[in-house]
Amino acid sequence: MTLPGVLGIVLFLMVVTLTVKPVGLYLYHVFDGGKTWLDPLLKPVERAIYRLGGVDPAKEMRWTEYLFALLAFNLAGFVLLYPVLRLQGVLPLNPQHLPAVGAHVAWNTAVSFVTNTNWQAYGGESTLSYLSQMWLTVQQFLSPISGLAMVLAFIRGLTRKNVSTLGNFWVDLTRAFLWVALPVAVVAAVVLIALGTPQNFAPYVVAHTLQGTKQVLPGGPVASMTSIMQFGDNGGGYFNTNAGYPFETPSAASLMFQLVLGFLVPVGLTYYFGKKTGDTRQGWTIFAAMMVMFAFGIFATYWAEAAGNPIVSHLLQHSVPNMTGKETRFGVAGSSLFEVSTTAVSWGSTAAANDSFTPIGSLILLFNMMTGEVIIGAWGVGLLGMLAFAILAVFLAGLMVGRTPEYLGKKIQAYEVKMATLAMIVPTFVILGFAAWAVTSKGGLSGIFNPGPQGLSEVLYAFSSGVGNNGSAMGGLNAASPFYTWTVGFAMLIGRFPMYIPALAIAGSLAKKQTVPPSIGTFPTNGWLFGVLLIGTVVIVGALVFFPALALGPMAEQFAMQAGHLFGGVPK
Amino acid sequence: MSGEKRERGVLGHLATAFRLAVVFAVIAGLIYPLVLTGIGQLLFPFQANGSLIVENGQVVGSALIGQSFTSPRYFQGRPSATGYLADASSASNLGPTNPSLIAQVSQALGQVLAANPGVAVTQVPVDLVESSDSGVDPDISIQAALIQVPRVARANHLGRAQVLALVVSQERGRFLGLFGSPHVNVLELNLKLEALVRGGGGQS
Known about the structure:
The complex is a heterodimer of chains A (572) and B (204). Chain A has 572 residues and is mainly alpha-helical. Chain A has a domain at 379-562. Chain A has helices spanning 3-31, 39-53, 63-87, 103-114, 124-127, 130-159, 169-194, 222-231, 252-277, 280-307, 310-316, 331-344, 359-370, 381-401, 414-439, 442-446, 453-467, 482-512, 528-543, 547-562; strands spanning 205-208, 214-217, 406-407, 410-411. In chain A, the strands form 2 sheets. Chain A has a two-stranded antiparallel sheet with strand order 1-2. A two-stranded antiparallel sheet of chain A has the order 3-4. Chain B is 48% helix and 7% strand. In chain B, the strands form 2 sheets. Chain B has a two-stranded antiparallel ribbon.
């Protein structure tokens, strides 16, 4: 670890903290009837969209109707996307004459981008036409705004009383698109171009290198995709190696800019939540719990990557950090920060090869995803998951003192606790179930790349990433094989849409309830004590169930590495 | 709510879903990238077109994309899993206890030592023996350039001090003094080197 590396991470944490309030207030103005300076420009567009869509913006929806509208919208996204991937060979904007995407990979990709996962079973620059990339970019707008709408409805459930409705999905969606996603994406894309990311429609350029060989340099609308891919916490990059590819992230400056972009909405939402409850400390408590876990993760990973691989250090006869799969311009600290962020924020963009991380480094990445990506988390769904943990935490506290638990003045009863528990158990079951199937079946085993415990880590990573709608990967795994395109595809679907049902059911149930004034027996949810309890709940309930699997994967790998043990026989 | 009314509500939402998805797709999938391309081409044409370096009317590469350098005359970059293929990027993805990783590092170390006589194992920086993420990492650490100075100077009949000064002039520091790591861009360094050789800086 170097001093600039540590100070850089600390500065980054401070910058993120400083964005919380302004972003949260902006969201409050956008979604709760305030005025913004974009109104004169966007109000007419908003009205036109409602007219085109046949939307009555004044109509409120019950939770079931809200859910149906959300599912219908995501279905529409899938239906728009899949044919373009299959027909790209005959569609325009395909200067490299790339053929149609195969059925397995096209299905997996369409699911992946609709669910905000952005798992990539293909290499962008060698598989997709410019049109296909632009069409994936559409989903990079649509899936985060769907997630944002979800948490808006959930927060309304927590803060309204004696009503059965949660807002209007079409209005939430349209305002999230026009006031949040689009303006920031445009500005960010211009900044990215200025920092070096290409934006053109020219065919790939053939360069004649200094040594007299040829190198094909890809082009395309890269910046317009990269900006929303990072801001929307999508993570599906234009190129196979994603943000590690120099066109996507040409410098450490661009890397830090993209990192800040990805944090803006998820952290701002914690303030928005506090503002909506009438007590901003509620939001700050959630934010603090998230940041404590995030900071622990980043420093643990940075330490492990800086300590490096002792087997390589032995060869070089001096202690070296782990630079396999890392880019020089980002360094060890920048690469570690990006990978921990990308798993914590449920983002999935990668600037380094996770398969080549040290075992402790991979352990943190896996932990971030296995907890349900509530350590920050993507637009809406991160805060949503954390609020489900908060409901469990007050329930546990209620058990300890023998009182009916309350959260924000709402009595938490059997129905809410059952739904919150369901939202925890299903993903766990899917990750471990699919992983067990993969390591006991021919199709699953043949896709593994690295021998030994690292191979198990690859499998666990794939399903954690799929269910958590993260999208990053340990790249060695053969994600394009039929086994993994289908299993990871289903994992992504289960991780997204069925999870909406318990969440909205809780919201619908809470909205109907009366609020009770806090009494002396109420467990306060806006201070450090609750923050600690929340972290404890996330770690114990969320991650402990994965301990046996993690012991066989990254932990075993760590001990082997320390002992200088290699797997898979004699080196070639 | 009557059954008929509910049914119309369901179909109504489906219709709205498809209409809005199409409207958003036109805005985000067509207008947005086209407008951005216009802005990019107008304000930052060099970056928007891939930071291409043109010499004598021919594109020799991109300032952002690494190239394979094997000749002793040139500074050499990091090992690449793809051999510096820019249109099919990939990392090696080798795990920390994979024998292939150790074999690859040993091989790269052997090459560095053989190509740079006089350099001790302990002087070899890790970026010269471990492969990058993109396979087209354009940069190397300062130390990786420094250990190549004697060889490059010899092969080009230049003075060591001249080549060393060139490396120092190409050094790029951390962003804000904190982010990333100091490095030199190998292609740009080699282009400057060629200019120096052509400019008659060589000693005969």
